[in-house]
Amino acid sequence: MRLILFGPPGVGKGTQAKLLSTKLSIPHISTGDMLREAVVAGTELGKKAKAIMDAGQLVSDDIMIGIIRDVLRSPRCAKGFILDGFPRTVPQAKVLISLLAELNIALTCVINMEIDEAEVVQRLSRRLTCKKCGKIYNLGIDKLADQKKCTNCGGELYQRDDDKPETVRKRLRVYSESTAPVKEFYKHSGLLNNVNGMGSIEDVNKAILAVLHHG
Description:
- By secondary structure, the protein is α/β, with parallel strands linked by helices.
- The protein contains 8 helices and 8 strands, in the order E-H-E-H-H-H-E-H-E-H-E-E-E-H-E-H.
- The protein has a 5-stranded parallel beta sheet with strand order 2-3-1-4-8, with helices on both faces. It has a 3-stranded antiparallel beta sheet with strand order 6-5-7, with no helix packed on it.
- A hairpin with a 5-residue loop joins strand 5 and strand 6 (136-138).
- The chain is globular, with a radius of gyration of 17 Å.
């Protein structure tokens, strides 16, 4: 199974991708996680990406495509994958078709998770990230005894610049402008399926699995 998960920042793509990855036994490929790892590691790519992400902008196509090309060619994706955070532009979607054709594989389904802007702003403003290991916590879900300390590595927790309400609204505008054409692109190819992302984690997961099993 080869899936693409779509949805604005804060819709819960990462959570759903991890659940689907376990249930379907295929890897979750998160471009956001890959970029954050590069940022934490302080690589050249990471430094470039950090400046762009902190400004609430999207990382350039060539950086994203380079990351995706390497991953899709790796043995871990041989039995399928869940792509989270890519493609975000029509040029990226077209390059992805070429990459998959090169590898002799086709997409199974594109899941678009939908949510209200106000809900996203509220969810992300309650998110904290560890400075040391990059683990993300949500104050609404994770009951932290100490909101300044990571339970994973003991590092300091902070609110990322791109999780602050004004930046979140900007990210949502950028997301909406850049991905609306991509959704149209997949709608025309008959692969797009819309799922309501406002319910509980379990409800949203059931809705996605229903699409995959009956789609």
